[in-house]
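From the thread on structure requests for the teaching lab: each student submitted one protein with a one-line request. Submission from student K.M.:

"Model Lactose phosphotransferase system repressor from Kribbella antiqua, C-alpha cells only."
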Amino acid sequence: MSVQELVEATEASDMTVRRDLDFLAAQGVLKRIHGGAVSAMPTGVEPPYSLRAQAAVAAKQAIAAAAVEHLHDGETIVLDSGTTALEVAKLLHDRALTVMPLSLRIAQELADAPRIRLLMPGGEARRGELSLVGPLTVASLRALRFDLAVLSPCAFSLDAGLTAFDLGDAEVKLEALAVSTRSMVLADGAKWDRAALAYVCPADRPDLIITDSTAPEDQRTMLAQRGVLVEVAS
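Reply posted by the TA:
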C-alpha cells in the first residue's frame, strides 16, 4: 500500500504513517518501498490468487495497457499466468494474434475473442491458481516457437532475478523464455526488490521490463545500464 492510501484509511498524519511503517519494517513485518510498503512474505509462501488479484489493480492495468502497445498483429505470443497477464488478456479481444496462455483463467478470457487463435498447452492446472505446469506444459512449449513471451513473475530483484513461488511455475516460465525470440516482463513496484523460492532467470535476461513509478528508480537505472529497456507505465 502507498503512504497516501494508509493516510486516507486511518486518518492518521503522513508523518505518523511513515514512522509506523519504518517501525514495522524494523520488526520484519513489512518491506519499505518508495512511497509505501509491501508485505514481507516468506519466500516459500505464495499469497492466494484472490488476494493478489485485488492488489495494485490500477498499476497492473496501466502496465497491461503499455504492454499491448508492443504487440503487433500476426505475432505469436506465450502469455504467462499472473494477475497482470490476465489484465493484458482483457485488452486483446480485438487483436489478430496467436496466443498460448499458461492459465485456464486467461484461456477463458480469450475463448470468445474473434481474432485470437488460441493454442492450449497440456499440463496440470494448479489448484486455486489455475496456472498450467508440469512436463506436458513444458513439452507443449518445446514443440513451438513464439515471437514474444509475456511474463509476470511473482518477485523480481537485481540480485535474485525473476523468481516464482512454485517450482513448476518457474520451470514453465523459463521454458517460455527459451522458445521465444523476445521477452517482456510485467512487474509492478510491489514485486521489486523481493525474492520467491524458485529461480527463473537473471534480472537482465528480459528484453523489456514494464513497471510503474513505485519501482525503485536506482534499480531501473542499473537495469538500463545493463542493456534492458525499462518502461514506466503512467
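TA comment: The chain has two domains: 3-40, 52-232. DSSP finds nine helices and 14 strands in the chain.
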